[in-house]
Amino acid sequence: MHKSYQQFQVLDICIVIISPDISCTIKQSSKLYLVTFSSSIDKFHCNFINMKFVLVVALGVALVASCPHGDEEAKAGKRLIKTTFEGPGQWMDEDEIWGLISKHQNFMDITDHNFPDIKEGDVNVQAIPTTLRFQSTVNGLLGRTSITRMQDFIRTFSSYHNRYYQAQTGIDSQRWLFAQVQESIANYAGSATVNEVTHTFGPQSSIVARLTGSDPTLRSEIVIIGAHQDSINIAGSSLGAPGADDNASGSVVVLETLRVLVESGYIPKRTIEFHWYAAEEVGLRGSAAIASSYSTNRVNVVGMVNFDVPGYYVSGRDEIGIYTDNVNAQVTAFLRLLVDGYCTYTWVNKTCGYGCSDHASWTSYGFPAGFPAEVVFHPRMHSVGDNFASVGFTQVNEYVKLSLGFVVEMSEPGTL
């Protein structure tokens, strides 16, 4: 068998030529291709790592490896899961995935994804400011935020039994949120839309609202703020999960930002999008699906900030956590600048590890993303103890200030 094929590598494309009597199957796992050659008398396996394509040529016909990750494993109901930056990931069944969830282990479900090989210098950061330029505009918006309105939202959103992505209450809560967004943009002076983004992995949809930019040249450049809408109880998917901090608080930061912009009549030059993701708690699946679509369609995302768990307050810690791993350095530096300029709180650098929240999806697809969050994580996260009473609304309001500063400064190129 070893004499029946030849292998050549040209740059990062691998070409394999086999004789006509040999059959071939290809499995792809992240950046690893496993090619199995079979004849009537033998079988041979060969791994090709970090190749963009594997071309298998026989009888003058080329077969390009474009199959999804591990068909056999996927048919068995397994998912390809990554828990670290290194390695191709591991196929896991539902029980194994719940084992990760029960231990609060961060992970990404990469079954349906082939992330590009992105280096920090490859990311387009030209639109990210290095100074604050629109203080007058932003400061005029900060006084419009409403803690009472945010309390009303979280009280209702956390009253659902849970917001698990496969549960009926996860569907109901998403539909309620969608109605809140619809109501918020109904009287906007500019052009505003909101859409539900359906997913193949479950019945809970993500939500994308948009304030279209007024500048014909710049409106194709997109500024995004996002938060996940789902919640989970690590003891079981049917159990109660109010998710007031995780992540009703992040969801309301995005919604309150939208409401303030609409009510003020603010019309950006660049387009601003507001995202609420499904299924974050089971591997960042909603955000990864949207980031993948934007990558495929070459959407020009000039900056993204993810809001997750901004609501748990520890006495004496009047600080905003600026997370520095799995993010873009320029966006992160800009977030510090925004906190200094627009917030009462100070900032402190933090880390959260691989795949801790939805910014990781955008980073993985080469978009410039940042992540501010609470400095001490809720000790009863992912349980019934993450309830309305545990949310610090003065702190949540600080994140709304940060969010307003981000979208205004990012959506207004140039100087006044």
Automatic annotation (TrEMBL):
Record GO terms (molecular function): aminopeptidase activity; metal ion binding; metalloexopeptidase activity
Domain Peptidase M28 span(s) in chain numbering: 207-397
GO biological process: proteolysis
Gene3D superfamilies: Zn peptidases
InterPro entries xrefs: M28_fam, Peptidase_M28
Pfam families linked: Peptidase_M28
Alphabetized UniProt keyword annotations: Aminopeptidase, Hydrolase, Metal-binding, Protease, Signal, Zinc
Cofactor: Zn(2+)
Signal in keyword set: yes
Family statement: Belongs to the peptidase M28 family. M28E subfamily.
Protein name listed in UniProt: Leucine aminopeptidase 1
Species of provenance: Folsomia candida
